[in-house]
Amino acid sequence: MIWFTLALGAAFFVALGDALNKKFFARDGMVLMATARTLGPLPFLLFFLWIFFPTSELLSHFSKALQNPEFLKTVGLLLPLETLAILLYMEAIRISPLSLTLPFLSFTPTFIILTGYIVLGEKLSWKGIGGIGLVVLGSYLLHLPVLKEGPLTPFRALFRERGSLLMLAVALIYAVTTVFGKKAILLSDPLWFAGSYFVLLGLFVPAVLKLFFRPRILNFIKQNLKGVLLLGLTQALMIICHMKAISLAPAAYMIAVKRTSILFGILFGGAFFQESHLQARFFAASIMLLGVVLIVTG
Q1: Domain tally for the chain?
Q2: Model confidence pLDDT, tens digit, residues 278-295
Q3: Which of 23, 149, 226, 242 would be 153's cystine partner, CB 3.0–4.6 Å?
C-alpha cells in the first residue's frame, strides 16, 4: 500500500501549496501567484531529474522528443491550455474561500466521461452515472447553509461565487489537458515526461505572463524568496509523490485517492483563513469525492 500513502502525500502537498499561495501571495494578484506556482518548483524538479536520470538518458529522451512531431504538437497544445487553467485557478482561490472552490475540481472526471459519451460515443456505466449524480449533488450541498432561503438558493449562490465558476472552468480545461497529457505520456517515458514537462511549464508560464502582463518577476522573487521556495517545494513533492504512486498502482485508483486534496483544502481553509461552515462543506465535498471514486472505477 505504498502507492496509497504516496497518493495521499500528493493530495496533501497540492492542497498545502494552494493554501500557502493564497496566504503569501493573494495580495499580489493572480499573475504573480501563477508565477510563484510554476517557477518555484524549478530548482527542486531539476534536482530530482538529475537524481532519477543519468545525463545520457536525459539527453536521449530530449532527442527523441524533438524528433517526434506528434509529441511536439501535443505539448504545444498543452502549454497554452495549462497556462490559462493556472491563471483561472489562482484567481479562483484568491477571490473565494478554498472550501468553496477546490471541491469543483471534482467535475473534471465528470466532464471527461460526458465528453467521451457525446464526442466518442463511449458508454456510460451505471456507476459512472451515479458518480456524476453525486458530484452534482455535492456541489449543490456546498451551499447548504443558504438552503433555508429556498431550494434554488444554492444554485444562485454558486453563480454569485465567482471563484466557484472559475474553478468549474478550470475543471473543464483539465478534462481536455488530461487527454492530451495521457497522449504525451504514451509518446514518451512517463517519469521523464512528468519531470521535464513541469520544468518546461515553469519556464513557459512566467515567459507568457511577462509578455502580456509585464510583472516585475525578479523583484517579486527577491522580496518573497522564502515563500516562493516553500511553495515550490510543496509542488515538487506533489509531483514526485504523484509520479511514484502512479507507477505503482492503476491510474484510476491513484487519481481517486489524490482527489482527497479537496478535503485537505477545506481543512486548510479553516486553519489558515478561518473559513466558515466547514462541517457542511466537508460533508458536501465528501459526497463529491465519492462520486469521483464511482466515476473512475466505473
Answers
A1: 1
A2: 998 999 999 999 988 887
A3: 149
